[in-house]
Design goal:
The chain is mostly helical. About 50% of the residues lie in helices and about 5% in strands. It has 2 domains: about 50 residues, no CATH class; about 130 residues, Lysozyme, CATH 1.10.530. A 3-stranded antiparallel sheet has the order 2-1-3, with no helix packed on it. Helix 2 crosses helix 5. The longest helix has 18 residues.
Length: about 190
């Protein structure tokens, strides 16, 4: 049974009221392959999307809290800081504790092998993760002759898939990822 926003809000409101808990957490959800909805107040995976933001829950401006690190990484690797922000937004929505269902971790959602290749020790440390992710993205841009689309495809699907398909892999997830990053990149420019 799929609850609409008003029913879900009412249920959570009454439950928290009875338990004496403050209304502070946003609600995230996703619908699995079998059509079963899943809800949580903690976004533990990338597939969870914001379902309801409580009015008394002010939006947190994560970009500002990571801006200094992003600028440092951009300068260090001669990268566009807006592109780094766009990748972080698309990958983790600025959630430093994000873990994908495939095992990618942290703000820039690096897979364990990639993290190891980039000498990333703690994927949940924002500075380490942003520097490792930026380094990886800069290497992909160099490998694919500064073609942002191919570099983003490689970031999402792996450089082997881009090479095997001699261009953009035909994966819907990769195409959607590229579109999201490009859209965020325009917003952050």
């Amino acid at each position: 049974m799929y609850l609409n926003k008003k029913c879900l809000f009412f249920f959570i409101f009454i439950t928290q009221l009875l338990l004496g808990m403050p209304l502070a957490a946003n609600i995230y959800h996703y619908i699995d392959e079998d059509g079963v909805p899943h809800f949580t107040n903690i976004k533990t995976e990338r597939r969870y999307q914001l379902y309801y933001r409580f009015a008394n829950q002010p939006p947190v401006d994560y970009i500002k809290s990571y801006q200094k690190i992003i600028n440092q990484a951009a300068k260090h690797y001669d990268m566009d800081s807006a592109l780094i922000k766009a990748v972080i937004k698309a990958e983790s929505d600025f959630d430093k504790h994000a873990i994908s269902n495939k095992g990618a971790k942290g703000l820039m959602q690096l897979m364990p092998d990639t993290a190891s290749d980039m000498n990333l020790k703690n994927p949940f440390d924002p500075k380490e993760n942003i520097f490792a992710g930026t380094r990886y993205l800069s290497l992909l841009l160099k490998r694919f002759n500064n073609d942002i689309t191919l570099a983003l495809a490689a970031y999402n699907a792996g450089p082997e898939n881009v090479a095997a398909h001699k261009g953009l892999p035909p994966f819907r997830e990769t195409k959607n990822f590229i579109a999201r990053v490009i859209n965020y990149h325009k917003q952050y420019k």
